[in-house]
């Protein structure tokens, strides 16, 4: 890290594009992550638990709900919101996913699709970390095909909706105060969104066990059996899956930023190790093949950050399209995968042990590679933009 607070792996000085206010906020966030989260990250990951006591601290940094006037603490750009994801993920991808779910997906759904009254009710306390959100879209039999294959249903009876179905892989859902549930209206066949409170009768969230990636994230299987939701808790500005896509675009770019945070964290750990580990009487950092791996990693981190920065600039200019988000997510998660693999190779056998700083990134990368749209689905979105032809089944 340089005297200006710039990360060594920020080789093209992207952090310098932040405003002075954003730069100071990034440094405050980095201090919190290094001081409060890093010492605990491996232990909580190993035990597959979430550090609930850190939620007030991350909320106090002002990085939850930064996209919405009802909850943001200061004016900020999409570039800052992305850089914040990097700062969190370079320390702990599980914690970054927690923030991304409650701040990006859950608050994003309310910010995009909620009425003025719903935004006023939920966004301020969520931004303060007093209300935690989850986002229930994926189902046991509907992942990549949720646009057409959603099986959870919503039946309207007067001013009440009845939800029935199941969701899977829902982050935060075991402890979230509210979960945004997406269901198909049986009358018009369109997808609608509902704010479901954790104590709603018929709502059940069970933790998914035996995960080997993002172990700190509390993913859940959700069952909905005759769950009653008042019309007042239906997102008033979501009437189709197309409306829902307005939530997913920014969060997909957010995952690209998170991927670069994971890559950056793994690269930093590999550099530290290479300088300390000696073989044949020299630090392994002095050997050509090790330097090649580190140089290739730095290039991939730099290229991925460049894609993220441009996607953020397009977002701020109101010019970001779905294919921009899809390319960023696909490209950056693929580069992340390469980086963590090389970083693990630099550490040799020690690369599979938590104590040496790379194994957790290596494992967590696999989940980030898949969620928010698989690599294959995102490349098809880009392919459609390139060719004008739909290749989805």
UniProtKB/TrEMBL annotation:
Limits of the Acyl-CoA dehydrogenase/oxidase N-terminal domain: 27-130
Where the record annotates domain Acyl-CoA oxidase/dehydrogenase middle, the positions are 134-226
Q: Name one GO biological process term.
A: fatty acid beta-oxidation
Q: Does the keyword Transmembrane helix apply?
A: no
- Where in this chain does the record put each Acyl-CoA dehydrogenase/oxidase C-terminal domain? 247-386
The keyword Oxidoreductase is annotated on this UniProt entry: yes
Cofactor(s) recorded for this entry are: FAD
**Which keywords does UniProt give here?**
FAD, Flavoprotein, Oxidoreductase
Database matches in Pfam families = Acyl-CoA_dh_1, Acyl-CoA_dh_M, Acyl-CoA_dh_N
Under Gene Ontology molecular function, one entry of this record is:
flavin adenine dinucleotide binding
Q: Which family does it belong to?
A: Belongs to the acyl-CoA dehydrogenase family.
This chain belongs to which protein, by name? Glutaryl-CoA dehydrogenase
What is the organism of origin for this protein?
Glycomyces sambucus
